[in-house]
Amino acid sequence: MTQEDNESAAAIRVENLTKTFVLHVQGGARLPVFADLSLEVAAGECVALYGPSGSGKSTLLRSLYANYKPGRGHVWVRHAGDSGGGWIDMAGAPPHRVLEVRRRTVGYVSQFLRVIPRVPARDIVAEPLHALGVPLADARARAEALLGRLNIPAAMWDLAPATFSGGEQQRVNIARGFAVDYPVLLLDEPTASLDAGNRAVVVDLIHEAKARGAAVVGIFHDDEVREAVAERVFDLSKERGAA
Amino acid sequence: METPSPLLRVRNLTQAFGPLLACADISFELHSGEVLGVVGESGSGKTTLLNCLSARLTPTNGIVEYDLRGRGLTDIYALSEPERRLLLRTDWGVVMQNPRDGLRMNVSAGGNVGERLMAVGARHYGAIRREAEDWLAKVELDLGRMDDKPKHFSGGMQQRLQIARNLVTKPRLVFMDEPTGGLDVSVQARLLDLLRGLVRELRLSAIIVTHDLAVARLLADRLMVMKDGKVVETGLTDQVLDDPHHPYTQLLVSSVLQV
């Protein structure tokens, strides 16, 4: 494989990433999480982040989304935006560029849905698609299809999810994350509080995303789910370097 | 859009009240379609900064430039007084914390909205009234109250009317000072949802001063954290709130009560 082939296959490339939390409110305590971490994920590939609780899985995932700000290193993402594509460093790009990458290229399913007062489930799911310029009716149709697949009854689509159960909120969150066909998908325990039937739906959604060429990075506590979707495991417990 | 020229550019803005520096050497840019939140405790200089940015308080030092239609980036304090007033009435909106400061309390609700339209040259009474009605509906005010004076409205209704009055001329940039301050929580939620929708639908650029981090998270793309007149941290809203780096931001974020 030539260098160029290799380049064209990668969707996300992490280089020498270092993250240490400094807690000023607690006497300046330093918590090194990982140091000089490098990782490459190809289009169509799913990498599972692995390691015991506290090993930095979520911190890495959040750093890939630029939700956390690493101290050193780069998170290169292949961005295909309306302002021209190319590799963008999520760890160094100005805020409006990061937002553009998040709109178009990198999707993130957090562990918990952030409920917004008064906004119904259907619109929470349709919003990222509508923000890309898809007409509201089409975005809502897509939202309904996803909510239906994830077994959220139609009677709940018009309701704000504040009163939904944890599992229902998580499924709304997953539907929102899969509404746009992002080239890169970051999943933080997407199946944590789901029953077997809904777990299977999420596994199918991940397979479909990979089949259309998405690079997926996820945290899956469920061994069965991880084995079903991931090509590779990236063990964080080996990354706690001399930060 | 590689490096678009900013809508607003602020360089080394300083505002001194005697020996007190309310704003110290503040520089930043705001791009079109961006919502910037300014957070910090009372007395940190947030409102003074907003007043300086919105052409209502001449800074002691520094430059505030705005991308005037047809003229490009222009120093707003080099404009003539009528030019500045026109800017405030047309291309800009200013939503004050206290609706009494932003509304004419003895003019009807419809008149409050229509007045801004007339300032930009609208003359046809029927068209003005229709547009005013349209905006009252957008901010969920009962059209039956259109001819009532806002002094008889509740605080939440007054605030929604103030927003309609400011947005009717389709401004490109809106300044808001604690837009949900002093309102009940349920009224706040309704107003926030409304603002969030309008900002997206109209692709508004906005600078919102608030001490409420939840409000900032809901509305702002980016945050500026102020303490003692200085900007101590800036970044994407979720980055600043979820991974604060400056000691003061960490204190601010960790002091919020979880509900």
Give an account of the 3D structure:
The complex is a heterodimer of chains A (243) and B (259). Chain A is an alpha/beta fold and 243 residues long. Chain A is 36% helix and 26% strand. In chain A, strands 6-7-8-3-9 form a five-stranded parallel beta sheet, with helices on both faces. In chain A, strand 1 and strand 2 (29-42) form a beta hairpin. The longest helix of chain A has 16 residues, at 196-211. Chain B has 259 residues and is of the alpha/beta class. Chain B is built from ten helices and ten strands. Chain B has helices spanning 46-53, 81-89, 99-102, 109-119, 125-138, 155-167, 185-201, 213-219, 237-242, 247-254; strands spanning 8-17, 20-30, 35-39, 61-68, 72-75, 92-95, 173-177, 205-209, 222-227, 230-236. Chain B has a six-stranded mixed beta sheet with strand order 6-7-8-3-9-10, with helices on both faces. The termini of chain B are far apart. Classes of the chains: A alpha/beta (243), B alpha/beta (259). Chain A binds chain B through residues 21-25, 62, 66-69, 82-84, 95-96, 98-99, 116-119, 131, and chain B through 1-2, 31, 34, 189-190, 192-193, 196, 200, 218, 221-222, 235-236, 238-239, 242-243, 245-247, 250-251, 254.
Topology record:
The complex is a heterodimer of chains A (243) and B (259).
Chain A: H1 3-9, E1 10-23, E2 29-42, E3 46-50, H2 57-64, E4 72-79, E5 86-89, H3 95-104, E6 106-109, H4 121-131, H5 136-149, H6 166-179, E7 184-188, H7 196-211, E8 215-219, H8 223-229, E9 232-235
Helix pairs in contact in A: 4-5, 4-6, 5-6
Chain B: E1 8-17, E2 20-30, E3 35-39, H1 46-53, E4 61-68, E5 72-75, H2 81-89, E6 92-95, H3 99-102, H4 109-119, H5 125-138, H6 155-167, E7 173-177, H7 185-201, E8 205-209, H8 213-219, E9 222-227, E10 230-236, H9 237-242, H10 247-254
Parallel strand pairs in B: 3-8, 3-9, 6-7, 7-8
Antiparallel strand pairs in B: 1-2, 1-4, 4-5, 9-10
